[in-house]
Design goal:
Elements lengths: L19 H14 L4 H6 L3 H16 L6 H15 L2 H15 L2 H10 L7 H16 L5 H9 L4 H23 L7 H4 L3
Helix pairs in contact: 3-9, 4-5, 4-6, 4-7, 4-9, 5-6, 7-8, 7-9
């Protein structure tokens, strides 16, 4: 069975045939990305779970926010780096390379975000995401105020926390199921 047929180590095949709306969504992914991401295929054994996952992902990563798409992808990579999530590091590392136009930044974010040339605002945002990931109970009002002092609004802090939380959940599911990134991600935007 090929990787595209079995995106995880679990025997949970996609619903066949896919509902019309799901097939249309997968066709759009294939047209825009040149593939259907394995994370979507992995969830497609249960269309309700797939729909819940995609609705949350699309809201957090693509919805209205003062955080740029690149900043949200940077958070995804920092969290995934701490959690050593191969799937998300590969997929979202490619997104950082694409959105920044800088392959070196994408690689630095994956390996050691603190070595990347970032502005104070980005560094604080990513440090906050790191603290949430490593020890969320240690987050204090001082941490939130430090972000405010750099121009982040309370809504921005909410968004940072939600992107961080989403990827901590996704990383754990991906690692626990041995989810594999699509081969196409490895060569993208280098």
């Amino acid at each position: 069975m090929s990787q595209s047929d079995q995106p995880t180590a679990l025997d949970l095949p996609m619903v066949d045939p896919l509902p019309e709306a799901t097939q249309k969504y997968f066709d759009i992914c294939d047209e825009k990305l040149g593939m259907v991401p394995n994370v979507l295929k992995a969830h497609a054994f249960d269309i309700n779970k797939l729909n819940a996952f995609t609705a949350l992902y699309n809201d957090i990563m693509l919805g209205e926010s003062n955080l740029s798409k690149l900043e949200r992808e940077m958070i995804a990579v920092v969290v995934s780096s701490i959690n050593k999530c191969f799937y998300c590091l590969t997929a979202h590392g490619a997104a950082v390379r694409e959105l920044s136009g800088d392959p070196v930044l994408g690689e630095l974010m994956v390996m050691n975000w603190k070595a990347a040339r970032l502005d104070d605002r980005q560094r604080a945002m990513l440090g906050f995401a790191e603290k949430i990931t490593k020890e969320s109970s240690a987050v204090t009002e001082g941490d939130r105020q430090a972000l405010r002092d750099l121009g982040f609004t309370d809504r921005d802090i909410w968004d940072i926390a939600n992107v961080t939380g989403f990827f901590n959940m996704s990383n754990r599911v991906a690692s626990a199921t041995d989810m594999r990134p699509n081969d196409e991600y490895h060569a993208q935007h280098r």
